[in-house]
Every structure is written in C-alpha cells, then in structure tokens.
Amino acid sequence: MRNILILFICLVFSISSLNGQIKVDLKKFNKKSGTTAVAKNNTLSVSWPAGENKTGQLLLDLSAESPIIKSIVLQEGNTKSPIVSDVDPAFILTVGKRDLVSQNGWNIFFDKVPNKPFKSYNVAIKKQAASVYSVGTRTLISVGTLSAPGFTGTLEITLYNGSPLLNIAAVMSTDIDSTAILYDAGLVSKKPSWNRIGWSDVDAQIKNAPLSANDKATDLMVKYRTIVGEHDHGSFAVFPAPHQYFYPLDEAFNLKFVWAGSQYRNMIDGYGIGIRQDLYGDKRFVPWFNAPPATKQRLNFFVLLNSGNTSTALEAVKKFTNADRYQSLPGYKTLTSHFHNEFIMKVVRANKPVPAQPAFIDVFKKHGIDIVHLGEFHYTAHPKGPDSLRLQELHALFEQCERLSSNDLLMLPGEEPNEFFGGHWLQLFPRPVYWIMSRAQDKPFVSNDPVYGKVYRIANEEEMLALLKTENGLAWTAHPRTKGSTGYPDKYNTSKFFKDNHFLGAAWKAMPADLSLPFLGKRVLELMDDMNNWGDRKKVLAEADLFTIENENEMYAHLNVNYIKLDKLPAFKDGWQSINDALQNGQFFSSTGEVLIPEFTVDGKSSGEEIASADKPLNVSFKIKWTFPMNYAEIISGDGKNVYREKINLDNTTAFGEQTVTKSINLSGRKWVRLEAWDVAANGAFTQTIWIK
Q1: Based on the domain organization, do 247 and 155 belong to the same domain?
Q2: Pairing state between β 165-174 and 684-687
Q3: In a domain, 29, yes or no
Q4: CATH at 171
Q5: Which of 131, 240, 389, 523 is the most exposed place for a label (fewest CB within 10 A)?
Q6: How many domains does the chain divide into?
Q7: What percent of the chain has pLDDT over 70?
Q8: Which superkingdom does the taxonomy of this entry point to (predicted)?
Q9: Do the Cβ atoms of 305 and 159 come closer than 8 Å?
Q10: Are residues 112 and 216 in the same domain?
C-alpha cells in the first residue's frame, strides 16, 4: 500500500510538472525603465518604447511545445501592426578544431578549419526558466537552457528603448579547448505569418519574392547583409552585427550571407529567414571564430521592426551603418590602408586594357573614403630588381595613383616590402620615391637616373632606416603578432629603427574574431598598451589588408578607417606631407564607422600631445557619436609596467545620438592615457595616446 501511495504521489507530481507554469524572475526588472513586463499563464508580455510615438510588444510563449515567440507587434500612435507571429529563433552551430600549436595560439590566422573534421548541430532549447532584467535603457530576457554537443547556454533577447530593435542571441559556452566555431541563425515558422521576402541586390536594387512554405531554402547574395520578411501590415529585417559577424579573410567576397526558405541546410524544420556563413570562406586561410573554454560566445542577430515594406525596412537598417558609408566629419579626412589590389601588375604591366575608372575607385568613393593607402607588389613584382623592371613598375604605380586621384579621393602609393626589418611591414613616403630593395657592392646608396631621377638602393636595416629618415617616410608593422608578423614587433622592439620616430608603430584589424568579446581587435589593442608601456611613443592605425576590391563584395564588413585631422585633401602633385605629419603626430582616431570620437582631451591636450604632469586629478573630456546604442567607453592608462582601465557604462544611451562626457580621473604615476568606445554590436573607435611627462 505504501509503495502504491508513493507511486501515486510521483505521478501527480509529474503531471503537475508537465502542466505547471515556468516561473519568470522579475526581481532585477526596473519597473521605472519605461518598459512593462507581465508574466501570466506561461506567457511573458514585454512592451517597450520603440521610438517617437512607437511601442513594441513582444509576447513569448513559455509552454513546452509552442513557438517561443508568439507575436511581435509594433504600435504607431493608435495603429497596431502585427509584424510576425509563431516563430522560433533557430541556430546552427558548426564546431571545428583550432590549431593552437603551429604558430601563435589563439592569434592564428593561417588556419584552415574547414579542411579538418567539423560538425554542425542544431541548438536545442528547453524552456526551463525565464528572467527579465533591466540594464540601463535595455531590457534583457533570458529563457531556458540551450544545448548542442559540447556547448550549453541560454537564449537572450535584448530590447532597446527608443528603437524597434531587438537582438536575439544564443549565449553558449564550451569546456573543450582548441575550438573554432561558425553559426547560422534566423527566425523560423511552421506557418509563416509573412508572405513575401525582400532584399537589396549588390547593385542596391530592391528585390522581392513571394513566399511559398515549400520553397527550398536558398542562400542569397545581398547588399547591407539583410533579409526582410514582409506582409501587408509591416515587415521585419534580420541582419548581423555589421563587422563582428565577419571573421577575417584575405578577400571580402560576397559569400551569400543571408538565407530564406524551408528546411535550411536540411537541419531547420520550417520556413525561415536569417543570416549565414559560408563554411569554406574564400578558400584561402579560413580561421572561423575563436571559442576558448568557458567564454560566453554570443551567436546573435538583430531584428528591426517596421510598419512599411521591404524598401522602408532596408532604409531603416541602412541608417545603422550610414548606408555603409563613412560619415564625413568636419576637420577630418578618412584614410584606409593596406590593399593588395595588384592593379599595376595584373592590368597595367600585363598590357591589359586600362579602364578610365577601375571598379575599386568607385568602391572607395561609395564608402566615403578620402585617402587610400595601397599595398601593391605583394609578391607579384620585382622589388629587388633588375633595376629596369623595378623602376618601370614604380613609375607605373606613381603614374596611375596620380591619374586616379581627384578632388575627393587621393590614392597613395604604398607597398608591403617585408625586407630588412623582420616580419611584414608597410611604408608610406610623402611623395613618389624610387627605391630598390637590394644593392650590389659597386652601387651607391643613392644615385641619379637619367629617366627617373633620384634612385635609392637598400642593402640592409640601417640603410632602410636612412631612407625613411632622408625622405621623411613612415613604416609600421603590418598585422602584428599574427600572419607573417608573428612575434613582431616584440622581436625588434629594442632595435634602432623601431625606436626611431619614422617607425610609426603597428596596424589594427579585427583579427582574430571572438564572439564572446564586446569589442573588436584585442590582439592589437593589447599591443598598443604594451608599446605604450615600452616607452616609445608609437601609434596604431587601422588597416584593411584585403585583396580583390569589387562593387559586389562585402567590403564594409571588412573595412575600417582612420579619421585624420586634416583641413583639406592635398593634391597628388604637391605631395602629402600633411598626412604623414598627422599620422606621426598621432592626430587621428580609428573607427569601424558606427562610432566616432571627434574630440578627446586630457587636461586640454589631444591625442599625440603631452601633459606636463599628473600630480592632481585631471579632467578627461570626450565627444562621441553613434548609430547603434552605445555599450561603454573605457579610459585606458599605464605606468610603464601595468595597464589600468576605467570603464564608463553607456547603457543609458539609445540609438543615433551624440554625447560629451567629462570626468575627473587620477592619473598619478601614469605615463600615458587613451580612449576606446564600443556599441552593442561591438562596433567601435579608439584614439591615439596622450602622453604624460
């Protein structure tokens, strides 16, 4: 009898558990945040102010078998637009093996992850628990337990006050070492509530297609990285973080980064739209994303609600990246660096037809670039001679750069010489300079050529430095601590040439990629702090390090720029000493484009300048502009040995704003200070250093 009673109690408990409510934790939800959250009968309703006269409402179904997103509604005034209903966030996690041995650990680029065994998994969700909490102007909703072989985590939905914007993330961790990952994601439904999909093609033309629930999923080549679901009452755009989602590659090929249709990859049941990565990348070196043990990898995408059609939805999405164009900023010019386009060797010197305006000129202009620093002759030419070929190649480079420069675009000749110093490096002279990367014993360091004028011949490290000093040129480490610069500049940081002010420092790129970090480019930002503590007043400029440049490419995701303090663009024929001076003096900041830092001062001094002393608290002031809501800014300083960080939370910001921040900070004992600022999509900007005497 006793056993029967126990069995009965267990059965009752099991039935009640199956039919019971999932508890929603609201203890950290701020009821005064402007957002409302109500949990009742396994539904969670969250409404947030979504912009001027707009309210968004997200209704989640926490019962076991139903789609988790019951509905999303956008209300404008008294008009309610049901945007999407009965959908599930879907994630495919692809797991491979990182090579941590052959080169430089997690900083490796020369890895070919898809050439080694890998597996793809659906991320499963169990709606075991839910919580709603407030962080500044954001509302975060955490649901259930997510799992995939070797990974566990939670589903996290973020709502942003002031915008009809959501971020949906599978926050996943693993304990397995040497892991590299990719992910595809989107919204999927067994019965889609939208009846059309839309996108922009690579020529910026709006395309639409009717939806059929039986349509096999298709990968699409689009512009602005966005796919839209549309019906008569409104639309929703799905898109990734514009830079963070794109791990480093040599090529910016458009690899069809969105998908739409049924049974995506024969893994996701139902019809959906979403974002994707090509498993094989550009088929060169394909490193994927780092996923170190115990890090919280955010497999995320954004959703933007709109009461209009695809065209209006895309216009709203484009505002977050200024339509993939770097904004003009009074008193600044934009410079982007390190492009192995090989136009000279592949077209001009190959005797092919030379177009009046090559496609790459159009690409740079469309992206709002004022100055392009090239990296021609990347193992394609004759840097060591014979003299006749080398001088002809340089002459063709100078001639084409002058021809293609205009009032609104300056093309700067440049190379990645990779001789004499060690590792890989770039150079920038303030005018055309003829030089050969070898010198026979019977040849002088400098001579006069009857056709080309002054010609330098370089035999060693000392002569290379002498050339930089004679012609007032600059050099810096390309892709430091990775690729062909693994171990550099650390290996030569005590050398005469490195300590000279004509060796600028190093270049920054978001490489490697790690989705657990709220910022980009840890490798070089750490190097920047190290160089500052070494005591040499080095600078770090942003670099792209790309090859093919075409209009159809996904250029913006892989680009970055330097905003240089420059009143006007110099003419090619007059030289560009003003650009070299601004770089050498640290009068610039670097940006992915969405965050700008037009002003940064400490005790009235700007980046590149020196403060007399820090024996009292100093006034730090900076102005930032942004598109995505900001996440934080960080004042970073050092004493020659240690690095100190003072984080300024900016989670009270909303999308599209600007703000001046003033803060008194104790920098006693410090030797330098700089600033970074990052938004919720890991877009950001960083300044050059201000020095303390």
Answers
A1: yes
A2: unpaired
A3: yes
A4: 2.70.98
A5: 389
A6: 2
A7: 97
A8: Bacteria
A9: no
A10: yes
Judge whether 592 and 560 are in contact, CB under 8 Å. Answer: yes
Tokens linked to 186: 């989107």
DSSP letter assigned to residue 48: E
How much is the pTM? 0.96
Residue 534: how many CB atoms within 10 A of its CB?
17
Each as own residue / partner, the long-range contacts of residues 659-662 (CB below 8 Å, 24 or more positions apart, any chain) are: 659/623, 659/624, 660/599, 660/621, 660/622, 660/623, 661/621, 661/622, 661/623, 661/624, 661/633, 662/619, 662/620, 662/621
Q: How far apart are the first and last CA of the chain?
A: 87
Could you tell me where the DSSP H helices lie in 86-216?
none
Phi, psi of 39 (to 5 degrees): -110, 130
Range of 425's domain? 337-430+468-519+536-589
Taking the C-alpha atoms of residue 664 and residue 589, their distance in angstroms, rounded to an integer, is 22
Neighbouring CB atoms inside 10 A of 158's CB total 18
* DSSP helix/strand/coil, 344: helix
Share of the chain above pLDDT 90, in %: 95
Confirm if 135 and 28 have CB atoms less than 8 A apart. Answer: no
CA 652 – CA 675 distance, rounded (Å)? 19
Element (H, E) at 169: strand 165-174
Cα dihedral sign for 76, 78, 83, 86? positive
What is the layout of strands, in order, in the sheet containing 474-477? Answer: 425-428, 474-477, 503-508, 539-542
519-570 pLDDT per residue, tens:
999 999 999 999 999 999 999 999 999 999 999 999 999 999 999 999 999 9
Residue 446 counted as domain residue: no
Note whether 368 and 326 are within 8 A (CB): yes
Same domain, yes or no, for 311 and 374? no
Q: How many CA atoms lie within 13 A of 583 on its CB side?
A: 32
In this structure, the answer to whether residues 270 and 396 fall within a common structural domain is: no
Q: 384-394 burial, b for 16+ CB within 10 Å, e for fewer?
A: eeebeebbbbb
Please count the CA atoms within 13 angstroms of the CA of 72 that sit on its side-chain side: 29
The Cα–Cα gap between 502 and 471 comes to 10
Cα–Cα distance measured from residue 517 to residue 675, given in angstroms and rounded to the nearest whole number: 17
Q: Is residue 610 part of a domain?
A: no
Residues in the chain, total = 693
Query: Please, what's the b/e burial string for 540-552 (b: 16 or more CB within 10 A of its CB; e: otherwise)?
Result: bbbbbbbbbbbee
Q: What backbone torsions phi and psi does residue 390 show, to the nearest 5 degrees? A: -60, -45
User: Residue 492 has which token pair?
Assistant: 């030569």
226, burial (CB in 10 Å: exposed 0-12, middle 13-18, buried 19+): buried
